[in-house]
């Protein structure tokens, strides 16, 4: 008796279908035709209704002719660039780093529209193989330049057993209504240690989408930090898979949203084998009518005993009209585990404010101090000083812009 | 049996006789699994507009009620089953089901003497007191007024006269539709709209009976009110409807219990419960849901798809849900509070136990609309066997809900490595002055705890029952005393066969 | 007559519908240390919060002058810059903010408010180091987030360190002895006593006489039911210790 109501397609969907067909991705085009863009009825998009939020899709990106100023420079970093989906020639790589490129996307197939679109539209991928520990920060500067464009790009990173690296990805570009769809696939070998920071600094008129997939072998240690501080609409999907005993992830993220912005961090983590651990920690700060979404799912597979995973989200409201929406999820199929999640939301603590003010610190300054303190947990573990300083700069810039 | 003397807090307030009688209960896998042979009057099988007309006619309903049902039926035809819950089941064939079954003892009994003795025996077997005299004779037991509903009809409601002296109406909803149409028309579907969801709309079209409670302004209900639901007939769906209205400054505590015979088919139970609390009123609603869960291989059992919602309509009103969910093959149930009045408060205390192949997807919604509203959620899920147990809950503060407060604690306990425990909270703050705190944990019974109990002479099952009872203690204490002992007993029965 | 450092006249305050301060009168001349003693719930801590400007309280009557200036018109941070310091009974933990960062911000905010220039980093470091040594506070503790994970003694020492650095005119010590063992109490008292001078006044709020053996007051006031019911010299504290508060209940009624 359930009638199949055909999905009414909007402008954005029709453009996507055309674009997918134009690159020969008929199956993906068909998928959009049948299901449309996800609405709030699709669980993983419950708070980010793409059908509502994506009104139009700009034309597919052409090769870039000009480049805007770099959004973030880290002293001494090894720079790589992808502009409008095209991998740019790189300078000589530091020892132990092999740079290359391959055709097509990098993400594993999953039931997710952004992953499908990235797979279909990314023409080439930057590949990095890290054979041993790399000293300088590796910065991948991903940007969309020129007129408003729909660009997809991807990066695949292999980190050898025992190697370590700090990788920064920045997303920026010209001040146009771009739609960026970025994919990163990273495989960490045994006992590899990686810090992966991704920062969206694209313009307010842009929509920024990223999907980061991680595979962790035995004893691998991963720290990630997603910062949304740019696009009007942003969503980063983080898919860590703990596939080897002793693998550990500190998956962290921060939404900085101001009036009219919508930022979404969605984590879907799988503890696939026994003896893996993770501590996801996400923070939201919203002001004006800004909206922050944090979803975090911890899945513990049937035999993944001794998993120890704790998810935490803390929201801070700096205005009465802001919205912070969170959906932590536990899906547990093994019994000998310690898993949990917490989510809190509120304004700045009044007692803390009073304490600072009673020491002579004016209200505005006290607020800034508390917000910085609130975020320190995310930036403090970043050991590279220049990178940590740059991240502090982004946070301070956001705070200053609100004064 | 576990020795409950170890739990002094529970024992203190319970008289010896009650404890003993509970102990002596027969420990069947499912002790309510008998069926009672009572002649019954049934609607033709299947669902159509005629079914709706048949039910309405059987109930001697006024025209407005029939029209209302038909409208709901028409609406339902355009709806689809929800699919977001973490439950799986084959398609339910509504055409292979009876929508109306009534014990054939017509006309409606006016006193207990007229009630079919078989029926009284059945309720007696269930341990539900229907004979006022006997209840009155029992010195220590508190008085409980009971509405007994079997299959599609309310068979008897006790203590009505005594309640009516203070202006309280406690009767079957069928009777309320005939006798108090203005109250029913004012409040029916005012909390759960006709088009709320697939099962609720279906319920509007075909509900057969249930309880109606009206507490007048300023009245504190002098006794616990309760309804016992029983599905007895084969291939029968039960669609009951409960409506409770608490006028300003009133108070009522209401209990609900459910059982069904063991059958190897799946039976559908799709109820709607609506609560309305006006200014300063308080409603406490407790449920012990023990529908037949199916056998150890997952065959049979009740599909329990229920919509329960309370509306804190008046300022400073309070609604508190307490539920113990041990039965049903599938439970899909989210007793919720709409915190509309300023200063209103919602509470949800839940114990959900799943074993065998049971699937539970249950939780609550706390919708903060008014200023200075607060809510509290304590949910304890226990998964054993091959079961899946999901807590799904929503806490939301709307833009005008200044100073909304919520505290949520969800704890899951897994027993064995073939089950699943899941937590899916939706936490939505749309107001800078709202403060929300949510915490969830998942754990198992530690080997140390088991060893400690073993060393003190408890076998594995006793130890598990003891530890689980401790795990759910925060919720147990919100149950009326009568139910507390029964619940502890029920917990051990539900978890039988979960270890070893 | 010299201007008192603190002058409280007929101060009434309430929280929601409950009146807590019911007409407090108190004058503290420069250089004097006054103690306020009273049982739990008598309103002593409320007095300290009201003076420091905590939002939760509504002042319904009375006035407070700090060195002749109207204190109640000022924001909490302005009161601090004007020279009022409250050593909290329960110092607040501020995660993520290093104690050193906080100290520097507080000193410079106050200097700025008074029209003084910022303290140079070397001068600041020197001042912190000097004050810290007296109180057994090493630089490691100063790198930790403010009060987070500090023991009871560490928290109180950090409060006195702040007092020493901020050089207030008027110090209010709210139950500074709570949670301290005898050794910690001596260190803290020594720190406080070192700050006593002819211009700086102190108000020591305490439940027990014990603290007053270490910080010897010039005047002792008994606080009961929201007001001062008896005043005397330091022997009054001993008397209280011996007899309890019961004798003073309703004394001012």
TrEMBL record, chain A:
<dbReference type="InterPro" id="IPR055346">
    <property type="entry name" value="Fe-S_cluster_assembly_SufBD"/>
</dbReference>
<dbReference type="Pfam" id="PF01458">
    <property type="entry name" value="SUFBD_core"/>
</dbReference>
<protein>
    <recommendedName>
        <fullName>SUF system FeS cluster assembly SufBD core domain-containing protein</fullName>
    </recommendedName>
</protein>
<dbReference type="InterPro" id="IPR037284">
    <property type="entry name" value="SUF_FeS_clus_asmbl_SufBD_sf"/>
</dbReference>
<dbReference type="InterPro" id="IPR011542">
    <property type="entry name" value="SUF_FeS_clus_asmbl_SufD"/>
</dbReference>
<dbReference type="InterPro" id="IPR000825">
    <property type="entry name" value="SUF_FeS_clus_asmbl_SufBD_core"/>
</dbReference>
<dbReference type="GO" id="GO:0016226">
    <property type="term" value="P:iron-sulfur cluster assembly"/>
</dbReference>
<feature type="domain" description="SUF system FeS cluster assembly SufBD core">
    <location>
        <begin position="146"/>
        <end position="374"/>
    </location>
</feature>
């Amino acid at each position: 008796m359930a009638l199949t109501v055909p999905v009414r397609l909007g402008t954005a969907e029709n453009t996507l279908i055309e674009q997918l067909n134009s690159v020969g991705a008929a199956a993906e085009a068909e998928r959009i035709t049948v299901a449309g863009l996800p609405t709030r009825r699709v669980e993983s998009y419950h708070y980010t209704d793409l059908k509502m939020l994506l009104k139009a899709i700009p034309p597919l990106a052409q090769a870039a002719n000009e480049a805007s100023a770099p959004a973030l420079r880290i002293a001494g970093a090894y720079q790589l660039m992808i502009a409008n989906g095209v991998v740019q020639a790189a300078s000589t790589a530091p020892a132990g780093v092999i740079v290359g490129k391959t055709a097509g996307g990098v993400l594993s197939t999953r039931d997710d529209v952004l992953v499908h679109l990235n797979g279909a539209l990314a023409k080439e991928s930057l590949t990095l193989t890290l054979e041993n520990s790399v000293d300088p920060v590796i910065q991948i500067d991903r940007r969309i330049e020129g007129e408003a464009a729909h660009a997809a790009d991807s990066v695949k990173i292999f980190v050898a057993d025992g190697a370590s690296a700090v990788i920064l990805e920045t997303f920026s570009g010209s001040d146009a209504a771009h739609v960026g769809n970025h994919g990163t696939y990273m495989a960490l070998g045994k006992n590899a240690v990686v810090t992966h920071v991704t920062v969206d600094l694209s313009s307010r008129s842009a929509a920024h989408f990223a999907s980061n997939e991680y595979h962790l072998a035995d004893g691998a240690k991963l720290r990630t930090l997603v910062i949304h501080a740019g696009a009007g609409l942003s969503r980063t999907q983080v898919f860590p898979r703990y596939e080897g005993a002793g693998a550990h992830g500190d998956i962290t993220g921060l939404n900085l949203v101001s009036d009219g912005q919508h930022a979404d961090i969605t984590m879907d983590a799988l503890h696939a084998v026994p003896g893996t651990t993770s501590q996801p920690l996400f923070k939201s700060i919203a002001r004006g009518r800004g909206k922050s979404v944090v979803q975090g799912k911890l899945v513990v597979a049937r035999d993944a005993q001794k998993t120890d995973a704790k998810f935490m989200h803390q929201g801070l409201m700096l205005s009465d009209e802001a919205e912070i929406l969170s959906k932590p999820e536990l899906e547990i199929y093994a019994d000998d585990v310690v898993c949990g999640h917490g989510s809190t939301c509120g304004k700045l603590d009044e007692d803390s404010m009073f304490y600072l003010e009673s020491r002579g610190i004016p209200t505005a300054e006290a607020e800034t101090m508390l917000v910085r303190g609130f975020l320190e947990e995310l930036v403090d573990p970043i050991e590279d000083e220049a990178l940590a300083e740059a991240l502090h700069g982004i946070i301070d810039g956001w705070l200053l812009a609100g004064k | 049996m576990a020795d409950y003397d170890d739990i002094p807090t529970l024992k203190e307030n319970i008289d010896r006789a009650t404890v003993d009688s509970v102990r002596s209960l027969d420990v069947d896998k499912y002790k309510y699994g008998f069926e009672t042979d009572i002649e019954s009057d049934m609607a033709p099988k299947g669902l159509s507009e005629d079914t709706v007309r048949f039910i309405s006619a059987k109930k001697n309903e006024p025209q407005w009620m029939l029209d209302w049902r038909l409208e709901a039926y028409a609406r339902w035809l355009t709806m689809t089953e929800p699919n977001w819950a973490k439950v799986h089941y084959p398609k339910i064939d509504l055409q292979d089901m009876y929508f109306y079954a009534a014990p054939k003892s017509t006309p409606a009994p006016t006193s207990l003497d007229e009630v079919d003795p078989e029926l009284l025996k059945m309720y007696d077997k269930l341990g539900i007191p229907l004979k006022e005299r006997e209840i009155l004779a029992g010195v220590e037991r508190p008085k409980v007024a009971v509405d007994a509903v079997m299959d599609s009809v309310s068979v008897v409601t006790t203590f009505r006269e005594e309640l009516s002296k203070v202006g309280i109406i406690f009767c079957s909803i069928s009777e309320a539709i005939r006798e108090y149409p203005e109250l029913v028309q004012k409040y029916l579907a005012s909390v759960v709209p006709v088009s709320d969801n697939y099962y609720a709309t279906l319920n509007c079209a075909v509900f057969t009976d249930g309880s109606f409670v009206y507490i007048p302004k300023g009245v504190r209900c002098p006794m616990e009110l309760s309804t016992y639901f029983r599905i007895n007939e084969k291939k029968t769906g039960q669609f009951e409807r409960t409506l409770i209205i608490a006028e300003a400054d009133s108070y009522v505590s209401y209990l609900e219990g459910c059982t069904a015979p063991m059958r190897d088919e799946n039976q559908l139970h799709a109820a709607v419960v609506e609560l309305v609390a006006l200014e300063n009123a308080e409603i406490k609603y407790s449920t012990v849901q023990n529908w037949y869960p199916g056998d150890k291989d997952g065959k049979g059992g009740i599909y329990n798809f229920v919509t329960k919602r309370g509306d804190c309509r008046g300022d400073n009103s309070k609604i508190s849900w307490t539920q113990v969910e041990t039965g049903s093959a599938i439970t899909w149930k989210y007793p919720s509070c709409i915190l509309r009045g300023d200063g209103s408060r919602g509470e949800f205390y839940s114990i959900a136990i799943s074993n065998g192949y049971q699937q539970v997807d249950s939780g609550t919604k706390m919708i903060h609309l008014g200023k200075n509203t607060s809510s509290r959620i304590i949910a304890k899920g226990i998964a054993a066997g091959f079961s899946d147990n999901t807590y799904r809950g929503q806490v939301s503060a709307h833009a005008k809900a200044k100073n909304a407060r919520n505290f949520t604690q969800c704890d899951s306990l897994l027993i064995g490595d073939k089950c699943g425990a899941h937590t899916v909270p939706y936490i939505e703050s749309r107001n800078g002055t709202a403060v929300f705190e949510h915490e969830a944990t998942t754990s198992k019974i530690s080997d140390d705890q088991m060893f400690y109990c073993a060393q003190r002479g408890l076998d594995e099952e006793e130890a598990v029952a003891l530890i689980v009872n401790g795990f759910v203690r925060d919720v147990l204490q919100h149950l009326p005393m009568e139910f507390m002992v029964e619940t502890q007993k029920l917990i051990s029965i539900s978890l039988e066969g979960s270890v070893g | 007559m010299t201007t008192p450092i603190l002058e409280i006249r007929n101060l009434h305050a309430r929280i929601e519908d409950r009146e807590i301060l019911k007409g407090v009168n108190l004058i503290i001349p420069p250089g004097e240390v006054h103690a306020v003693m009273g049982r739990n719930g008598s309103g002593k801590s409320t007095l300290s919060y009201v003076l420091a400007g905590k939002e939760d309280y509504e002042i319904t009557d009375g006035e407070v002058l700090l060195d002749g200036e109207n204190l109640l018109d000022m924001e909490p941070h302005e009161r601090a810059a004007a020279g009022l310091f409250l050593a909290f009974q329960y110092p607040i933990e501020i995660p993520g903010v290093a104690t050193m960062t906080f100290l520097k911000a507080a000193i410079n905010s106050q200097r700025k408010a008074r029209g003084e220039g910022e303290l140079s980093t070397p001068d600041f470091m020197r001042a912190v180091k000097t004050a810290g040594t007296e109180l057994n506070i090493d630089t490691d503790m100063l790198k930790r987030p403010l009060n987070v994970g500090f023991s009871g003694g560490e928290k109180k020492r950090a409060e006195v360190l702040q007092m020493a650095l901020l050089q207030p005119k008027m110090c209010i010590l709210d139950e500074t002895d709570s949670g301290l063992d005898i050794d910690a109490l001596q260190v803290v008292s020594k720190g406080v006593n070192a700050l006593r001078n002819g211009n700086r006044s102190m108000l020591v709020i305490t439940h027990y006489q014990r603290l007053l053996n270490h910080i010897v007051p010039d005047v002792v006031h008994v606080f009961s039911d929201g007001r001062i019911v008896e005043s005397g010299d330091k022997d009054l504290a001993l008397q209280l210790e011996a007899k309890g508060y019961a004798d003073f209940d309703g004394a001012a009624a």
